[in-house]
Amino acid sequence: MTLAVASDFSARVRRHEPLSRHTSWHVGGPAEVFFNPRDRAELAAFLRSLPRGVPIYWIGLGSNLLVRDGGLPGVVISTHGTLDALERLNETTVRAEAGVACARVARQCIKWGLGPAEFFAGIPGTVGGALAMNAGAFGGETWQHVRALETIDRHGAERVRSAAEYRVGYRTVTAPAAEEWFLSATLEFERRPAAHADEVQKLLARRKETQPIGEWSCGSVFTNPPGDHAARLIEAAGLKGFRLGDASVSLKHANFIINHGAARAADLERLIEHVRATVERLHGVSLHPEVRIVGVP
Length: 297
What we know:
By secondary structure, the protein is an alpha+beta fold. It has helices at 40-49, 102-112, 127-133, 199-210, 230-236, 265-283; strands spanning 13-18, 30-35, 56-59, 65-67, 72-78, 86-88, 93-97, 114-115, 136-137, 140-141, 146-153, 158-162, 167-169, 172-174, 180-188, 190-191, 243-244, 247-249, 257-259, 292-294. The longest helix is centred in the C-terminal third of the chain and has 19 residues, at 265-283.
């Protein structure tokens, strides 16, 4: 049965859109319905128009996401190129919408003399994704700076919430309500001297030296277990460079898996499971995926 979408949105809706075009691994089957709203008002109206119970997924830059080859039934909402306002509210706080690239937050905060925000340059996604998983890099985490949030639910109702309403941990965020998604966040920083203006470039150079930048990956595949690092365990298991088809464990950083061009989602998922099982067998440590795996096999 074809998912009905109101004719008002037909110009912005794409059916059977290959999600390989929208993920940093360049894999993934089609979205039944793919929607890129012009603005919040159109997003709210679109959500209100959807049939009850239809699955809804959100995508920004497509990192930290593995969409299986069978694709996603339901609706995929893309914030790429929209919901991307970034403004300074006062001397120490900024408001960033969900579609803003994290690297842009880092660069703009440096210009405003605010920090520590440099770590955002190491997060290869958008603010919406960073909020959803408490993304971090270089010792910083997103929710250390969150003070308030604007959200929207599947009925198109918008709310303002405080950070205290969420339970936050290492790469985990539990919301006070189901099926409520981030529209923006108010982030608080400290005044920083202009001498810190080169910090983003230093961190990006460090990232380029230690991570396979420019290759098709999703970012870190596994979360770090308590007191250890996933990359160390994977390398110690002899898996650096291990390859299944056109997917391999990165030679530069063992917690990255690379699509060399022809891998399918199934190949990447098989390699993820092989790495997880091998590390558990050799080290007795169960690694947990940081990457979100969704869709139909």
